[in-house]
Amino acid sequence: MDTAYSAHSAPAPRPHRPRVPVGLSAPFSGRTWREFLHLCLSLPLACLTFAYAVAVVALSAGLLITFLGIPVLAGGLAGGRALGALERARARALLGLDVAAPEPLRPAKPGAMAWVGAVLKSGASWRHLLYAFLHFPWALCAFVFSVTFWTVGWALLSFPLWYWTARPYIGLPTLWLDGSGSTVLYVSPTVAVGVTGVVGLLMVLAGPWVIRGLTQVDRVLVQGLLGPSPLGTRVIELESDRGVVADTAAADLRRIERDLRDGAQARLTALATDLGLAKETLAKDPRAAARMVDEAHGEVKIALQELRDLARGIHPAILTDRGLGPALSALTGRCPVPVTVQVDLDGRPAAAIEGLAYFTVSELLRNVAEHSGADHASVDVWHSAGQLMLMVSDDGRGGASTEAGGGLAGLAARLDSVDGLLVVDSPAGGPTVVTAELPWRG
User: Fold this and answer.
1) Which residues in the chain are classed under CATH 3.30.565.10?
2) What pLDDT was estimated at residue 287?
3) Could you tell me if 152 and 203 are in contact, meaning their C-beta atoms sit under 8 angstroms apart?
4) Which regions of the chain carry the CATH code 1.20.5?
5) CATH topology of domain 240-314
6) CA–CA distances in Å: residue 311 to residues 245, 314, 317, 350, 419
7) Which residues of the chain are modeled with pLDDT < 50?
8) What pTM was computed for the model?
9) Could you say which DSSP state residue 442 is in?
10) Rounded to whole angstroms, what are the CA distances from 112 to 6, 81, 82, 253, 410?
11) Is 204 exposed, middle or buried (0-12, 13-18, 19+ CB in 10 A)?
12) Which of 252, 260, 264, 240 is nearest to 363 (CA)?
């Protein structure tokens, strides 16, 4: 197994504290202006997608009687998916929202008609069409409100700067206290300018949060209608997990074949050769033949032990017969590092989960023995809320990681294939605590 521990680790950087409060810096932040640009671009793009959606529906409905409406509708839905890709790219660039592409089309067989059927059966295609209809009225409202609020706020805030240049063309502000007009309160220009600037300042400070609230609706629409559906995401995950399981099974078969070839098979081949020589020597030199048979007997014992170890590594008999607790006790007894085992289970999980749990602890203890430099380790197993929980800790040098290429990356992928989870807490200098969570499925 690859080394999963490192003796050195860079110190964690200190969190950066902004000198200017967020409320005051938000109107000038790049995020605010990117989101405002998103709202400004939404209206023309929404007009384009809405007109396209209306044209597709109207044209396909009009041609339906000639049977051309179905392929026209399929082509229109495919074009809608392309416009959806543009919207996802815009949300990624301006909103920082990374939405994965929906599940791809999967025609049952090659051919144009199979493709048309796949487009029409795809829920993602219809969600893109629905997005075009729903986004247009919202984009119109969001554009008008955001542009009005933002520009008016900046205009009022800057009013004290440009009022004095336009003062000859602006009359004194007045406030009427009754409808008859007999009583009039004249407000001085200085007070009017000050109140206007304060109102503009409040609007400018509130503008970023208003803009973020408006773009939040865009985020919901893009995620809900232009991304993969939960079912489609789950199918992709299952396909990925199936690939991981297949790769893991192939790797295990290769490992077993290698162990048999380099271990027991090679030893048994040499044993057969030695017995053949002993047979030929028996008539000439019985003592030498007896000595060769005695050596062959020792080789047989070693070969049997290697086969037992190999079978124990695949799926030990004690795990099948007595369960996870005794199997882990036997496993830790063979570990060169002293290990404390505590198992608290009120039953037995599914056989596949039980075997995976045994394999997980075995691999983690192998890491402890080979790479951690620990003096002691502990294994805790318990059942909680429908989950089988495993925790392996040691007092070694730390530095374990599940990053790609590390020793724990493959183990994390194997657990993920059954909806499990592997969490590693291993700061430099130790200690290391690895927690695994597996579905019980008893």
Assistant:
1) 322-439
2) 77
3) yes
4) 240-314
5) 1.20.5
6) 20, 5, 8, 20, 27
7) 1-13, 172, 174-179
8) 0.55
9) -
10) 55, 18, 19, 42, 41
11) buried
12) 252
